[in-house]
Amino acid sequence: MPQPQGEDHPNARLTEDNVCEIYDRIDDGQYFGDIAAAFGVTEECISMIHHHKRWVHVAEAVGREPPEPPRRIDRSTKRRIAQLAETMIYREIGERFALSTGTIGSIVARQRREE
Q1: Does some domain include residue 37?
Q2: Mean pLDDT of 35-59
Q3: Is the pLDDT score of 107 beyond 80?
Q4: String of b and e for 12-32 (b: at least 16 CB within 10 Å)?
Q5: Do 97 and 108 contact (CB within 8 A), yes or no?
Q6: CATH of the domain at 50
Q7: pLDDT of 99 strictly over 80
Q8: Phi then psi for 7, rounded to 5 degrees?
Q9: What's the domain count of the chain?
Q10: Does 1 map to a domain?
């Protein structure tokens, strides 16, 4: 006999309507921690919903696609980014390479540690 899923599961803390609202809040750019606190669950739970590891039947029902996996950045690109960071602002580098400023900052910091 298959195990009950979603709100039919005896340990469920969320409803399908909650999960739809969680997707809306993610789309609005709210932090996972804030969403988790609002629904009384963990950040990990919100992340699992976002990455289609939990409540998949709801994602499929509303036509949500899983997020793109992060792309790999090769070493030569990382070195180039670190070089550009000496003369350009992170936002401009991010636009050039389609990366967030946080990712640029992490790359630059790691490159500097390795020097």
Answers
A1: yes
A2: 93
A3: yes
A4: eebeeebbbebbebbeeeeeb
A5: no
A6: 1.10.10
A7: yes
A8: -70, -10
A9: 2
A10: no
